[in-house]
Amino acid sequence: MAEGFEKFIKFGDEEEVRQILGNRPDRSDMQPDANEDFVLEEDLETPDIRPVRSESGKPTVVVIDDDYQTLDIMKIYLARDYECAVFSDPKEAIFYMNTHLPDIIFMDSYMTVMSAKKMISIIRLYKEMKNVPIYFMVYEEERDVFEHRKDTEVEGLITRPIARGELQKILDKEKLREYLTKD
C-alpha cells in the first residue's frame, strides 16, 4: 500500500478509497519546483470557456485582495453603480471570470495564495480579457517599486487605503461611466 494511503482508509474501506483516488501516481518523493510561481503563457492552455458581460447592463468590477477591510470598502464604493465581485482567494476570482467578463480588475500586488504575476498570466489567456485594465492596490511605500517596473502588465496603481476620489478618477479614465449614461 502506498505511503499515506492508510490515512484515507479510516473514512471508507480500501476498495472504496481506491475507486475514489483511482490509480494516481505516488508523488510523495517529488520535490517542489523552485520556480513554481513562474508560469510561461505557452505552458498554459487557452480555456474553452468564454466569459460574457453582465446582464444587468452595469460595468463589472472585480476586486481581489486578502484584506477583508479593503474588499468591504471597495464593495461599498462600487455597489450602487457597478456590478462588483470581491474575492479574498485568487482561485475563486478565476472561477468567476470563467463565466463573467470584468470591465476592470483591482488586485492586491502581494497575494499569499498565488503570485500576482501568475494571476495576470492566467487572466490574459482569455482573448476577451487581453485588454481588460488591471490595477494593483499598493501602499504608499510600495509605489516606487511598481512604478519603475515595466514587466507588471498593469494599467496603474491605486494607493491604500483606497480613497473614493482616487478610485473614481481611475473609473472615469477607463470610461466605465459610459455604461451608466447609455440608455
Characterise this structure.
This protein is of the alpha/beta class and 183 residues long. It has two domains: 1-30, no CATH class; 60-181, Response regulator (Rossmann fold). Helices cover 32% and strands 14% of the residues. It is built from eight helices and five strands; from the N terminus they run ααβαβαβαβαβαα. The protein has helices at residues 6-9, 14-21, 68-78, 90-97, 116-123, 143-147, 164-173, 177-181; strands at residues 60-64, 83-87, 104-108, 134-139, 156-160. It has a five-stranded parallel sheet. α6 links the parallel β4 (134-139) and β5 (156-160). It is globular, with a radius of gyration of 20 Å. 19% of the residues are buried. Residues 1-13, 20-41 and 179-183 have low confidence and may be disordered.
Rg over CA atoms, rounded to whole Å, is: 20 Å
| Distance linking N and C termini | 66 Å
Range of strand content: 5-15%
CATH topology of the largest domain: Rossmann fold
Which CATH architecture of the largest domain is right? 3-Layer(aba) Sandwich
Domains counted in the coordinates: how many? 2
Q: Estimate the global geometry from the Cα principal axes.
A: globular
CATH class of the largest domain: Alpha Beta
CATH-defined superfamily of the largest domain: Response regulator
SS summary, helix count: 8
SSE run: HHEHEHEHEHEHH
Please outline the major beta sheet: 5 strands, parallel
